[in-house]
Amino acid sequence: MLAKKMNLPAAHPSTVGKRVLLISFLILTAVGTIVFLQKYFKYASIVEDFSITLSLVYNLIIFSTYALFAPLVAKAVQRYPLEREFQIKNFSLHLGFSILLGLLHMVFCNLILYSVDLASSAIFDRFIAKYLTNVIHIHLLTYWIIVALVSKKERSKIKNEQVIERFVIKENKHTTFVALDDVHWIEAIDHYQKLHTADSFYIYNDSMTNLVKQLPAEKFKRVHRSTIVNLAQIEGLKRHEKQLFLALASGRELRVGKSFKSVVRSLFS
Question: Which alpha helices (H) appear in 7-81, and where do they start and end?
Fold first, then answer.
């Protein structure tokens, strides 16, 4: 008894990279602006030649340009994914890559700022005195924020690829295909699921937890720890004494679990 999976188009790496690039740029621009404001309130009143424009440009260059590495980070996560289970190899690769990108970015910023006279001190001296102590931790943190964003996107993509298109029931060398729309509700029986249709039922081999993840959320909702209902079959909500029940078009009434009452009520709001 197996379920056929949908082959949905995967998100293109460049698309993921562009989205993460934009988010990273906005976050880092905000960080650069905050650092600029901190320096402004700290030095503007005591340093005579403090330049607001140069300070703002300086901090925006230092922080926001790190977002240029976002597509590289996105590709690294797609090639060496960090799953929920800890993987020492991939974690070590990302840790080394994050340090390398941080150092490259700091060298890049020093060269730019020195070439346009925004930084008067020697490149090496400024690199050692300021970047390795005050800035690199922000770069490392930003790298892992990007990793988290891309990993979440990848997990969402994988989850979407596992949505059931139809049920495939195999029994005694006989295969039966059951369309999702034909299933009115699903009842958990031990480790099996009983698929109720208009005039029959089928036994499906899977857990309730996995089935909830695989069924399209816009069509099915779990309303009890042992019940999933086809939303198209719901006609109303009834109350018997203190218990809620969903009334189906077939005349069947399904009990609503206590922890699912808010979910059911949201369907009628």
Answer: 13-43, 52-64, 70-79
